[in-house]
Amino acid sequence: MTTSDSYLAFAEREARGVSPTYERLSQAVARDPELLALLDTLPPAKRQPNLLFGVVRLAGGPVDDPAAFRAYVLAHWPDVAAQMRVRATQTNEAGRCAVLLPLLAALPQPLALLEVGASAGLCLYPDRYAYRYGDHRVGTGAPVLDCVLTGTVPPDRRPEVVWRAGLDVHPLDVTEPADLAWLDALIWPEHRHRRERLRAAAAVAVADPPLLVRGDLVDDLPTLAARAPAGATLVVFHSSVLYQVPPERRAAFTGLVRTLPGYWIANEEPAVLPQGALPEQPAAGFHNVLALDGRPLAWTRGHGQAASWFG
Q: Virtual CA dihedral for 88, 89, 95, 100, nearest 10 degrees?
């Protein structure tokens, strides 16, 4: 897939109906030979739309108008490129806990959670957030995570979590203003509710910080998993992470995680983590596949706003 193709795909599959601003920007970049030539000087994994747009937003550049965005990127390309080379799209969307909750609540309790690609660890608190599945509420407190759930009954409880840890090549700290600013920059322009959710989830993490370890998802996973307390069910999970991992390392990870005790929950794009035969996905929009120990169970929206169960 060319860089132009990837920006068109992002516009059509992920941004359409979700972020008009990013849909316009992606389409404009896809048609701009000069911007595409600059992006193609970066490693393939660093050319992605979310990363480019987030870096520009973090620097205070314009994203509302494609022409102004283009002028900004061309004028500041050395700085933009430098940031894109060292940063990653660490979208730490707490809303994804809403699609994980039906699984987590059904596993043997209590749980020891280990998130791969944890960013700042905001998805390590499914027991602290409140949930709203239509008229069905689970838990109290903030943030309240809304999710349209079909094909299964909403859970009636939150999980009991006795240990929470995250593994990331560059973990973020929500007590650091610069790290919180990057998380904010990765939220799409129109999504004010997600910014409010980020602040509320960050407050939960600040009050009870998770164990965040800098490390590799293959080399360092067994050591961290071994730190989970005895008597708790280990759950290794990840959401929208493996697309940033080279294919050979993905294969090494999936082979390794199957050897660990406990359970493995994946919430990834089907092209990134093939799941075999799948039912037709819901109507338009980008969807991940939620799977337990390699068995696909549901289509999920990228920010946790919906889950359609089939397994």
A: -70
What pLDDT tens digit does each residue of the chain (311 aa) get?
A: 899 999 999 999 889 988 999 999 999 999 999 999 999 999 999 999 999 999 999 999 999 999 999 999 999 999 999 999 999 988 899 999 999 999 999 999 999 999 999 999 999 999 999 999 999 999 999 999 999 999 999 999 999 999 999 999 999 999 999 999 999 999 999 999 999 999 999 999 999 999 999 999 999 999 999 999 999 999 999 999 998 899 999 999 999 999 999 999 999 999 888 777 889 888 767 899 999 999 999 999 988 999 999 97
Domains of the chain: 3-86 (no CATH), 94-309 (3.40.50)
Q: Where are the beta strands (DSSP E) in 84-184?
A: 111-116, 130-133, 136-138, 144-146, 148-150, 161-168
Whole-model pTM over 0.90? yes
